[in-house]
Amino acid sequence: MKRVLLCTNVRRDPGYALTKQVARLIEDAAVEVAVCPLFEEGADEPEELPGYQMMPLEAALPGTYLAVTFGGDGTILSVARAAAPWSVPILGVNMGSKGFMSDIEIDEIELIEKAVRGEYQEERRMLADVSLLREGKAIYTDYALNDVVVGGVTKLIDLRIFGDGDIITRFFGDGVVVATPTGSTAYSMAAGGPIVEPCEQGLIITPVCPHVLAARSFVLSADRRITIELGDEKPNPAYLAVDGRGAVELQPGDVIEVTRSKMGAIFAHVGKKGFYRKVSEKLGEKCEK
Hints:
Layout: E1 2-9, H1 17-26, E2 31-38, E3 53-54, H2 57-60, E4 66-71, H3 73-83, E5 90-94, H4 112-116, E6 121-134, E7 137-144, E8 147-152, E9 157-163, E10 166-179, H5 187-190, E11 203-210, E12 218-220, E13 226-230, E14 238-242, E15 248-250, E16 255-269, H6 275-282
């Protein structure tokens, strides 16, 4: 029997109201339904949902057929990162503000039945591997679905950025974003970077408030190795953040390497809106047709 996970942000769906609707909708589809409550670290344990199996997300993912998320983009990001090593497809139901990564809205939950039957389009998204090197040794590794940010805490920092060992740009500024195509509509776009279709393969380098006119965004082949060196001409406090998670403190001389990961994320698409329509509607423009 196929297992379907209902991954609920308990703050967005209090009392599992929408989760219960979807559970009842798909329970006749010959699937095993498991509910995975998602909550902030330090928060109280969420209540149980009587009649349904409750499981921690990490324990439930092996052998899962589909994971449906209830929340905003942060919820999808968290589940997609956890699901990537297991190649579990993600279907997002938007209960957030923007919900750009979500595939369907609350009034479209009947489409989840199609996904459970396997009637969905697979969208494969690239991930980026991240390594923080200090004195030549890797002291931190992670992977990103959205972006990698190197930023100054309160003042300008000194950055040198390379592609396969060749210098791309050097500047003093607030920081730099290295985004995947999926993350191109997030921080990178807000900093002036280009929008890239999410299923493309590539890495986008976008300076953040550079104190030089010549610093611009670059779109590199996914096969490039991006190296970010933190210089010492402005040895101000700096940090590394991967997918907006907890910041790692940096030191002058630190090197951050970003490359395409062997893993990838899979998104299930059953919604009626394509990428361009989402860009128009969710980023402030109206689309008549």
